[in-house]
TrEMBL record, chain A:
Protein name: Cytosolic Fe-S cluster assembly factor NUBP1
Co-factor note (free text): Binds 4 [4Fe-4S] clusters per heterotetramer. Contains two stable clusters in the N-termini of NUBP1 and two labile, bridging clusters between subunits of the NUBP1-NUBP2 heterotetramer.
Main subcellular location of this protein, as a coarse class: cytoplasm
One Pfam family recorded for the sequence: ParA
Gene from which the chain derives: NUBP1
The protein's required cofactors: [4Fe-4S] cluster
Residues noted as binding [4Fe-4S] cluster 1 in the record, renumbered to the chain: C12, C26, C29, C35
Function noted in UniProt: Component of the cytosolic iron-sulfur (Fe/S) protein assembly (CIA) machinery. Required for maturation of extramitochondrial Fe-S proteins. The NUBP1-NUBP2 heterotetramer forms a Fe-S scaffold complex, mediating the de novo assembly of an Fe-S cluster and its transfer to target apoproteins. Implicated in the regulation of centrosome duplication. Negatively regulates cilium formation and structure.
GO CC entries: cytosol; nucleus
Quaternary structure and interacting proteins, as annotated: Heterotetramer of 2 NUBP1 and 2 NUBP2 chains.
Automatic annotation (TrEMBL), chain B:
Domain of life: Eukaryota
Protein's name in the database: Cytosolic Fe-S cluster assembly factor NUBP2
Cellular-component GO terms for this entry: axoneme; centriole; cytosol; nucleus
Cofactor remark from the record: Binds 4 [4Fe-4S] clusters per heterotetramer. Contains two stable clusters in the N-termini of NUBP1 and two labile, bridging clusters between subunits of the NUBP1-NUBP2 heterotetramer.
Role summary: Component of the cytosolic iron-sulfur (Fe/S) protein assembly (CIA) machinery. Required for maturation of extramitochondrial Fe-S proteins. The NUBP1-NUBP2 heterotetramer forms a Fe-S scaffold complex, mediating the de novo assembly of an Fe-S cluster and its transfer to target apoproteins. Negatively regulates cilium formation and structure.
Keyword field: 4Fe-4S, ATP-binding, Cytoplasm, Iron, Iron-sulfur, Metal-binding, Nucleotide-binding
Family indicated by similarity: Belongs to the Mrp/NBP35 ATP-binding proteins family. NUBP2/CFD1 subfamily.
A Pfam cross-reference name: ParA
Required cofactor(s): [4Fe-4S] cluster
Chief location of this protein within or outside the cell: cytoplasm
Oligomeric form and interacting partners: Heterotetramer of 2 NUBP1 and 2 NUBP2 chains. Interacts with KIFC1. Interacts with NUBP1.
Amino acid sequence: MADIPANAPEHCPGTGSGEAGKSSACQGCPNQSLCASGVSAGPDPAIEEIKEKMSAVKHKILVLSGKGGVGKSTFTAHLAYGLAEDEGKQIALLDVDICGPSIPKIMGLEGEQVHQSGSGWSPVYVEDNLAVMSVGFLLGSPDDAVIWRGPKKNGMIKQFLRDVDWGNVDYLIVDTPPGTSDEHLSLVQYLSASNIDGAVIITTPQEVSLQDVRKEVNFCRKVKLPIIGVVENMSGFICPKCKNESKIFPPTTGGAEKMCNDLNIPLLGKVPIDMNIGKSCDMGKSFFTEIPDSPSTMEYKKIIQKIQDFCAETH
Amino acid sequence: MESEGDSNNLSGVQHIILVLSGKGGVGKSTISTEIALALRHAGKKVGILDVDLCGPSIPRMLNVHNMNVHQCDSGWVPVFVDQEKSISLMSIGFLLERPDDAVVWRGPKKNALIKQFISDVAWGELDFLIVDTPPGTSDEHISTVEALRPFRPMGAVLVTTPQAVSIGDVRRELTFCKKLGLPVIGIVENMSGFVCPHCTECTNIFSKGGGEELAKYAGVPFLGCVPLDPSLTQTLELGKDFLQEFPKSSTYTSIVSIAQQILDKASDSSS
């Protein structure tokens, strides 16, 4: 895929970049005039192939957050579980967190492998109507580190979008790594012709997290990605012994609620901390079945309903 | 002219420590900040380099998020956190026009800035330089480790939370250190146990003991547990010095002990 040609200088901005051929690093590069002419900035042929593939997918949802460890993967997994409760729907979950794939562990799929078939990579099935794909399935051992720079990660994402044999799918949910960099740009770029329904943004209540999430909102606006809404995770903890609530991650600046008001985006819900969530994730089980009557489960279900409503409206 | 190292901005830095974690949101920036503050209380001069380009948190944690960096003859002047100039900080947060601006950069551009951060910041004389990193094992990490290699960093502090999902990512980070030849100073387990302020019942929200087990399994030192403490989160939100505000808490004891182990290790390596 080579966003950066092999013979490019060290600080090559990438052939697809707006700076291509114009940045100071381009001086003296053999490809400079080609890049400057804008030829290489033309659409990647993969975009059309991916569009083809994605025509079998009704709804596409990205789960994003500027900050790490706020619960993107937990949310993604449970959004998938929740949607898959309707047996008539086919759900696909794609984990593009290349360096830190958590989905296999959370969904109890560690050690699973993907298989190659005539029509592409076969995903791993959790249930008949819930298929999962992650870089975790391609690693030999849980200690294997994926020490890759951007272009290689982008190639992987392209393959994931183009070559996985999902079949007909109602919802494709994409879990992402934290930040606003290669993985995110590539996703949006490769899916540019395939109509993403929107992004769900996850945050925790404290300002240190919100400041990263505001960046993510700006990212969505820059790349014209619709925002379905924000989920505030880890929003208060009820002590199992005395039932009093503590704000472990204090919303010193008003939490997600104020941020959503300020930025004029919907708040989908606030999920309280429940230690059983982390426990079920470690065991690779859905906490919907482990703790069906927890307030967190109820809140999750409400949020999932809102997302379904949003998607039903757009199509 | 003196030695050739004289031309370099890192030649006055005694020890370089990287703070890493495969997983996001486990407290890398928190631990970086608290280690810096603890080393300052021990009378050391500390610099912090924040190479988390897409989500810089340290400026806010040290309450300097409205400051700007300036230029001098030898490069960028870092932002001083206190009047005594005992902690200095460089972060992309200082270079953004508006705090909510997203840095939507691909790898090569991030790598270029990291190289500049490592070569062009006029740190002056420092006992410790702490490098805070984003989650993962990708561009930022490879570039940082490669650019710092000539200055022989003392090693990496790996931060994890106790649950298995996080430990999995840290195992990968250990492999990263091994592959790149970066020594591991030790593992810190953050958010291990929450003491209810109402009834003092301790709940292990994110489980417990995972970090220590991993350290044993991997044969690297375990530096200690830092509990989930709302007053720590609160002071960082407000940009205050936790160690000054809560010297009686068990969190204080843990942080100081982690910093002490780093000090011991540093004096071993320089003697």
